User: What shape does this take?
Amino acid sequence: MDHPSLEYFVEIARQLNISKAAASLHISQQSLSAYIQKLEKHYGVMLLNRKPKLKLTPAGERVLLAAEEIERIYQDLARDMTSLENDADIRISLGIFEPLVSLVMQNLPIIEIGKKYPNVSFHITTGYNVDILERVQRCELDLAVAGYTGMEENGLEELEAIPLSRDEDCIIITEEVMRLYFADEYEKYVEKFSEGVDILDLSHVPIVMHPMESGVSKKIRKYFMDHHRTFKVFGEGPSQDVVNSMVLKNKAFGMCNGTASRMLVEGTEKKVHVFPLKSPKLEREIVLLYPKKRKKNAFLSDIAGMIAENWRRSMKIPSAGEGGQEED
Assistant: This one.
């Protein structure tokens, strides 16, 4: 079925004046009026209200949205094809949720992407969820890997999400700090905390927090307030690396996601305890995000698909349709 061009309709919607639109398009008003009648006949609905003044009907608003989306797709396609044809560099802006940086960099299929798209490079931006999610929503980032609890909760329904994996936050604390604050009861609490920590039991131990605006910090603070308890804040770490550094220097205990905590333990000779956090439960879904209005950009979608597939393969998570359980 042939679909009529929507180029003229977009100009009419912008001008909301047939005379001005016809002049801008360098055609006669009669030809433009005939075009509108043909378009309305094609879709079987009125697209414009003519009186008292020209304005779009609800159906016209839908057609305009579709036309603008088509225009964006053509622009993206033209940009990608021009870049590929001219062997020009294509830079993809990738935002990463700060606590996941090491994990993402380990699972980014640079070699595979480089073989398929030799002129692609990545510009990496890190930050916490609020900043990363808002920037990808504004299309300042092409892709983002974030940890979140729900699109509607974050008010970011305009983003497309590809699930990668799920993770839970853990408590990280050195043996030295445990012995300092639990003294003769060290062994007892190591055994108890191995089953899960209620963070209220650590209220007397200094904690290095993630930034106040981060979701984890908000939930921790709310949990203490709900239980009418206070806690000792050593300071705020602007990045997971800073949090880890303060923990390893025996300044405080901290928190990080389960996968990153295992990497921390493997990367140091210091005795570090990693305890599951029982209360409050901090579970997050790790997702790959990009704006829904760029969903049909085949080039970007292909890159996103390659990242997601490599992530699942590295984390030993079955791909969609394979079924089965996640391997240990």
Q: What stands out?
A: Confidence is low (pLDDT under 50) at residues 320-328. The first strand starts at residue 48 and ends at 49.
